[in-house]
Amino acid sequence: MAATLVAIGVHGARRGPRGETGMGIGTLRRTFAAALFAAALVAASGTAASAAAPSPSLVEGCFFSGSTRICNVNEPVVNEPSSVYNIQFNAGDRVTVNAGGCVQTGGRGKTWKRYVDPSSSNGLYHGTMFLPGVTSGLTELRFLVGNTYTLTAGGSLFLGYEDDNYTDNGYYSHDDGTNDQCKNVGNAFLSLTIN
Question: Across the strands, what pairs with 82?
Fold first, then answer.
């Protein structure tokens, strides 16, 4: 599987204005879809445990309030295009999505951006999510937050992040962000209410 994913990641690479290589958002989405398909094949073969390790986010977990399951991810992974989390969905689950907060995107000056609806001039820096049977790959959270979806398939939670340089992303050196969009705003989070 590793060789397949490496080949998928290289396909579609392009050169930026400074000669750096990177993948456009469309390529990243296609890469994720292919990786998700490959992971599904591995899971079907019974070796899913070795295919995807849980993410190293600060806190992730679920608790029950009556019959409602509430799952939270604090400081989702933002230094790679996508990550799998140890939160499972079942077909028929009704999932309400909530997210917010800010992310360090790196660079010079005030570089923190909102996780859900960032103010940026290049169309990047959105948190993304895959909902089994609902989205056809990673979808920007701004289109999902505040809505409830009935899942037609089960699977793991996948979150992603859109950027052209992941190496300097994270939750360090908090500033007010581009155009003060992160002034008095905490770190990124995702909260799912599942019935």
Answer: 160
Give the 3-state DSSP-derived string for 124-146, with helices as H, strands as E and coil as C.
CCCEEEECCCCCCCCEEHHHCCC
Read off the pLDDT of residues 72-125 as tens digits, 9 standing for 90 and up: 999 999 999 999 999 999 999 999 999 999 999 999 999 999 999 999 888 899
Alpha-carbon distance of 31 to 15, in angstroms, equals 17
Tokens of 51: 């295919």
Burial tier of 18 (Cβ tally within 10 Å: 0-12, 13-18, 19+)? exposed
Per-residue pLDDT of 31-43, as tens digits, reads: 444 444 444 433 4
Judge whether 174 and 105 are in contact, CB under 8 Å.
no
Amino acid identity at 195: N
Give 47-56 contacts, CB < 8 A, sequence gap 24+: 51/1, 52/84, 52/156, 53/84, 54/84, 54/85, 54/86, 55/83, 55/84, 55/85, 55/86, 55/159
